[in-house]
Amino acid sequence: MKKIAFAVMGAFFASHGFTAEPDWSKVTERKIKLFYPGQSGLEWVMNKADHSAVPDIVDKKRACSRCHEGDANEVGDKIIAGKAVGNSKAPLEPKPIADRAGWVPAVFKMAHDGQNLYVRLEWEQPKGGSFGMDKKNEVKVAMMFDGGFAEGAEPAMELAERAGCWITCHNDLRSMKDAKDDKKTKYIKGAALDGGKFMDLIQWRSGKGEKPVDGYVTDKRVMEGGKALVKAEGKKDGNKWVVTFTRALAGGGTGDHKIEPGKIYNFGFALHDGGSEARYHYVSLNYQFGLDKTVEGVKYYYNVVKH
Ligand code: HEC
To answer: How far apart are CA 297 and CA 164, in angstroms?
Structure first.
């Protein structure tokens, strides 16, 4: 009788992802700056008249983080205040938002146990700003990641390893500069579920009764279909927020990338704070991770160690 109970429990835990988060105090932390990007869509970033770095991005294959890890806070402060930025010296925020932080100091940690990837994002509650756009959720945290690539090879999607989430962000999305359709959400040009040409997307939402999202981005954004997000939890402790994701390495659903050793994955975070929606979020620059793998000379790479 007992044996049967254990077997049933075992099957339950396996299929429902019984998981143990790592002892986070033992996991290496990585400080990042989440910043306010305004209307800096891919078309802005890749237009030399607006952004003088285009030849470096295209020819020298330089990534956003390589140049902006140091000044992302200043970039966010300038953009949110509606100041002139870029090569074209024009504002990237047509409606400056007073009394709202331009950037948020954050820390991420990641670990795995051979079955799941564990992600922890911690940040300080930024000052100001209540948008009231999302009536259900005061806070949302999302992570996007691609299907990974072998060191020295090209990723499946152009610019994924240089521009991170910006490959999904365009000038014609809702709330962006050239918006024509207020329902249009993020997409990737030339993306498809076949061949791993998509961004996997997971999101935690603070609203009571709200479910975590396990979706993806191809030529459109889909907020369902994934089966790999085991858990997403968040809480506020004093002035500090902590959100954790438990994500099955194997994937398995629609729009779920398999996370396997040997590959380098491109990813980024987005924080919708103060009931904001659409582009009114804080975002990270592009980062990379791999499982138990060191990569020399890439500062924005994070080694996810088995615990
Ligand atoms: C080779 C270095 C380099 C790379 C790579 C780079 N940038 Fe820039 N970026 C700059 C410089 C320099 C400026 C200042 C204005 C100018 O010359 O365009 C700038 C300006 C900006 C601004 C406006 C803020 C300001 O202070 O002017 C944004 C937003 C921005 N970059 C985003 C990005 C994103 C997103 C990426 C990756 C897709 C990226 N940059 C890649 C060098 C770089």
So the answer is: 18
**Residue among 145, 146, 163 nearest 155 (CA):** 146
- Residue 35: CA count within 13 A, CB half-sphere: 25
Q: Ligand 1 pocket: which residues have CB below 6 Å?
A: 40, 45, 51-53, 56-57, 62, 64, 66-68, 75, 78, 85-87, 162-163, 166
Whose C-alpha lies nearest to ligand 1, atom 21? 86
Tens-digit pLDDT profile for residues 164-193 = 999 999 999 999 999 999 999 999 999 999
Tens of pLDDT, residue by residue over 89-103, are 999 999 999 889 999
**Chain Cα centroid distance, residue 136:** 21
- Which residue, 146, 153, 170, 155, is CA-closest to 46? 170
* Nearest Cα residue to 289 out of 260, 258, 267: 267
Spatial distance between the Cα atoms of 260 and 228, rounded to a whole number of angstroms? 14
